[in-house]
Write a structure and sequence with these properties.
2 copies of one chain form a homodimer. The longest helix of chain A has 23 residues. Helix content of chain A is 62%, strand content 12%. Chain A is α+β, with helices and mostly antiparallel strands. Chains A and B meet through α1, α2 and α5 of A and α1, α2 and α5 of B. The first copy, chain A, binds a DNA duplex through α4.
Chain lengths: 112, 112
DNA sequence: TCCATGTATTCGTTTATGCGAATACGTCAT
DNA sequence: ATGACGTATTCGCATAAACGAATACATGGA
């Protein structure tokens, strides 16, 4: 049973994975890991229209990956589980390894 | 610099993340973690048409997440970095946490 | 209550992604 | 070379996501 059951996990699993499938959302998650922020702050930080940020936040919210807290008219978002950053960083490590191997096979001299 | 630069990492990062965005590919990765398999074996195990498996493998191959090795007319695929399974399992842990909280908020009595 | 600020949603369009079906390509044995 | 088996690719279609633009909704103060 190394391959988990589709019905109970894989389908929902894909729900989580999809949240990671957009660059903007990845940025948002990193930004929220730095510190909780409200929508406008995120929009300015990422140089992105506010509605776009709001829509991405809605995705993360629907999946339960972020929490909200009102602060007057503003809404402060925060990561609900910092392990998503662990996931992202692990992925970056994997990516680095892949890129290195790729460079090796191409006979590219190591830069950096 | 808690929010990594887009150009160098996030965009490529999304390349990795997208590989996780399909349920079939997740199954394939788990199946390959069990043991290297050839295309037909995967197709049978996952009860999926061979061309579909091949296309998903092409995605994983393009991203460098799997390696190939010929065995006669067959091609044996293997995970190129088992840490992808760590990523997936970590995501599952996160998912479980989210589901629990969700149940709590709904006042659902704990089953299991 | 009305306004200003901040946030969320809708609409229409564009782009990407996955699939079934058919087919092409590769490898090996005869 | 031909055929059988295994794998990869192409085509057309259907679905899903993301975006810009416009707009609706919510909150708090005058």
């Amino acid at each position: 049973m190394a391959v988990p059951q589709i019905e109970e996990l894989e389908l929902l699993h894909a729900r989580i994975c999809r949240a990671f499938g957009d660059t903007k959302r990845i940025q948002i998650m990193y930004a929220l890991h730095e510190e909780p922020r409200h929508v406008t702050a995120l929009a300015e930080l990422l140089d992105t229209p506010q509605p776009t940020i709001s829509r991405h936040l809605a995705v993360l919210r629907d999946r339960g990956l972020v929490t909200t807290q009102r602060d007057g008219a503003a809404v402060v978002y925060a990561l609900s589980d910092d392990r998503v950053i662990m996931v992202l960083n692990l992925m970056r490590q994997i990516l680095r390894g892949l890129l290195e191997r790729q460079s090796d096979h191409l006979g590219v001299s190591e830069s950096r």
